[in-house]
Design goal:
Number of helices of chain A: 8
EC number (chains A, B, C, D): 3.5.1.10
Order of helices and strands of chain A: EHEEHEEHEHEHEHEHEEHEE
CATH topology of the largest domain in chain A: Rossmann fold
Organism (chains A, B, C, D): Microbacterium invictum
CATH class of the largest domain in chain A: Alpha Beta
CATH superfamily of the largest domain in chain A: Formyl transferase, N-terminal domain
Structural class of chain A: alpha/beta
Shape of chain A: globular
Oligomer: homotetramer
Family (chains A, B, C, D): Belongs to the PurU family.
CATH architecture of the largest domain in chain A: 3-Layer(aba) Sandwich
Pfam families (chains A, B, C, D): Formyl_trans_N
Strand content of chain A: 25-35%
Number of strands of chain A: 13
Helix content of chain A: 25-40%
Protein name (chains A, B, C, D): Formyltetrahydrofolate deformylase
Chain lengths: 292, 292, 292, 292
């Protein structure tokens, strides 16, 4: 499969390092990259407290024949970071992440992701779209993407429905996007899934948590509406926020108009969150994200 | 006293009409204005439901010798609206509203209002600034504005403190602005004051209601912070919203940096709310505002 | 054909009035609407100079059996405006405008308009898409919209190419949208076409007029890029601006990244301009627009 | 003199490195910082082309007794960068830059800078304000800042006027801010001054270069107005852009209203540009800036 776009970088790797801050981390990492014949093309770091804080680093480096030499490179990284209290992970920037999309009846976020992917603007593959409705089937398949229908069920059969999702997803995807999926996933499901899940909530969280945020926004008389993309955790609408944005509304905008205008913000916010996650720009830390 | 600025309009009046929608309101109002020799220079209307909804209208008209002929003009308005279920109010657009500012230690909103007033950008007079601290006294007096110090007290003496405020305010001002005043005013105070009170809250309400919103925003890890200007009611941070705005922040911004960036949004949002209120552009309706 | 969406209003009409300002216009129009049994649901007016300026008015009114009684209603309007120096036009708000889209290889604006139309967010019909390339044919037809291929030719055969466009468009459409069409249309073409043409230019006009604005923006080192939707006139990129917006960029964004981010702004700006035009909210006046 | 604010960092230094990109720069710099006992607290880099491009790096590091040991630290830096084609500069982050402000009759940018400085939000000292009018004298002195009046003269005596400016500025300031100074400075003046000059232009450059941009914006009918802060060069309004922003306007906004709304954007944009310059975040490269 050919992946288009400027975002996949042959012979490039991304090293994420995080843990306790201490002098010498940049020197250790950069010396190691020089030693293995790499060249740093992007470097970001952040410390949440200069004294005893948590440290976060993202380094993208070019290294000819990275994929072939990866085992020895990983050994070099482990050696360089020996003695620091740091965790690290390494990703091959020439390999797209596999992204499943879960959708429902609202199609604006779904189509926007499919369209951006086709343009080459998202460094991912999309092995499947799963919906609890069938309305989007033809649209999705027009993009050459497999479509599966897994109906949502409430009550005792919910576990069965989630089991069907897991059967399709586990092992086949690197992360899951809820493109206005509108179903609450159980903590058990999230644990069995084992990969990050990104949601788009149609409000500026923490305002208007829960169902029908546009209706609540209309009732409160706010002058801006927003959207929030966050990682899904067991606590509804409480996961680490990746990206947010707002748009101006007035008293004259009906709840329907809020929904229409909000849809534009939702798809923008979700697409940025997905892009940054796919580029390994987002580091989770407790209930926060560091976005480089 | 000379009032500068383009916003005070000699021989102009603003008529606000609101009540039950019914065909013929515009015709009745505009025919009346023609009849009295006026010319409409601004016209806005809004109905929250075309069928049986509430109706809101703001008309600014030019009428030579408005002030002299006001009694007969008011009689014409009453006659024109007879038979409709409408309330109305009339203001002379050549007369600035009298605005008191209540402030505390933070001076950014206070100075911004004083500075805009001096430039002629706010169609108000400022008969007094009252603060529960003395730090701003010299700054305020440099602008030629009287400064009073009324210390805030908690507990049983709070009523005494509010009485001192009322003594200075009642009868002397048309509305009050809380420019980061940081004290909760009692329902009893608001009732005795009898004029609108505009507050600036340093968050995008209804997110982060109550104290220390920037700290809460940092804890939640939001990617935007905001400010909200609203009319004060007995319910803390729940009054009708006049204006809101947001600004982008990142994980790297400390709580102090949020405070610094938020200050810019606060003064912008408050100054817009004050301007619109001073221009009779804001109509309260339940817990909402219509802003024309 | 059934048209979905809240924007088509049965038994509603929009009256646009513009010309020389004079007292009594609102009264004359509103009395007439009351006389014919109509109810005003939206009213906007603007005067560019209170003394001797140009006057613009947009009134939407509900009138049962508008379509059937239109001739007599038009006679009432003409009578009511007799004696004023005003032009007027009347549109039936239950009838969608017919919008043709001209496109080229870039598909983001094209697909966005087709998708918004399918959602019911644009009160138009789309009788055809014409492209000078064939790449979008299948996408367009998936939306149930006819697709025609008319190659662009430079030099002496350009007139022939434009003649093919005219043959398809004239009489069949109420306005034309250039969705990144990237071809300059001759003054002769515009005259023969005889309906408004809306373009999207990929810069914040008047900055970066002409070809390759993102490249020019990169060269100049701007910190924001933008998009501008305007009516097309014989002067390239000089027509009346309907809508504009900008988005923040940095030194680190390549020209390709500017193009990617700009695409989002372009489709947003164009969709707003198209919606407002379709709703008769935009009045042209010289090289300006009044947008109600 | 006591300097308030979180932006002055005792025992912190900022190293700016730029030149030809080559593998090993990060390793060389970070190893050197470790060697001298420093700890990196902020690190940014950018390459405009991975192959043979220009390289830019900003490193802030903490080093006890930096000021005392500066000569030996500079020798270490020179040694570390030996063999690379790089220029570098080092600044002590505990020492505020000395900023002169040149102003004219419009006071909004001037007062905003003075007020931010008093709050401790700008890591600078302000040794003087020079104006070609006397109107701001008392305001400036209220902030405890010296005020000088140097009238502007056109024609043959312009050199004399500039000589008076130079006499006050040269040797006493590290950079100069034109806070709506509205006078064109000669190339000769800029050369003799020898320090960076930051201007605020009241348009979104390159739109509306030259005089009266709000009037031009009104004439063109734009839907956004903006402001641009840039380094001053011999070419009017063509210097490297540091920061820009825009704000929405409508057909109904008069040229006066554009001026009023623009003033808010101007002071915001200028204050950000000044802050970033004062923090050594801005690197000039040809006609561009890299802003870290």
């Amino acid at each position: 499969m050919t992946i288009h776009g400027p975002n996949l970088l042959p012979d490039h790797a991304c090293l994420i390092v995080h843990g306790s801050d201490r002098p010498g981390i940049v020197a250790a990492v950069s010396a190691m990259i020089t030693r293995i014949g790499g060249n740093i093309v992007a470097f970001d770091q952040y410390t949440d407290d200069p004294v005893g804080g948590a440290y976060f680093q993202r380094v993208v480096f070019h290294r000819p024949q990275f994929a072939a030499d990866r085992p020895s490179i990983e050994a070099e990284i482990a050696a360089a970071l020996d003695g620091f209290e740091l965790e690290w992970s390494l990703t091959d920037q020439s390999v797209p992440k596999r992204m499943a999309i879960l959708a429902s009846q609202q199609d604006h976020c779904l189509l926007d992701l499919l369209w951006r992917h086709r343009r080459g603007d998202l460094p991912v593959t999309i092995p499947m779209v799963i919906s609890n409705h069938t309305t989007a089937a033809e649209d999705v398949r027009t993009f050459g993407v497999p479509f599966f229908h897994v109906p949502s069920v409430a009550g005792p059969d919910k576990a069965e429905s989630e089991a069907q999702l897991l059967e399709r997803l586990v092992g086949n995807v690197d992360f899951v996007v809820l493109a206005r999926y509108m179903q609450i996933l159980s903590a058990d499901f999230l644990e069995k899934l084992g990969v990050p899940v990104i949601n788009i909530h149609h409000s500026f969280l923490p305002a208007f948590i829960g169902a029908e945020p546009y209706k609540k926004a209309k009732q409160r008389g706010v002058k801006l509406i927003g959207a929030t993309s966050h990682y899904v955790t067991g606590d509804l609408d409480e996961g680490p926020i990746i990206e947010q944005d707002t748009v101006r509304v007035t008293h004259a905008d009906s709840a329907g108009e809020l929904t229409r205008r909000g849809a534009d913000v939702e798809r923008q916010v979700l697409s940025r969150a997905v892009l940054w996650h796919a580029q390994d720009r987002v580091i989770r830390h407790g209930n926060h994200t560091i976005v480089f």
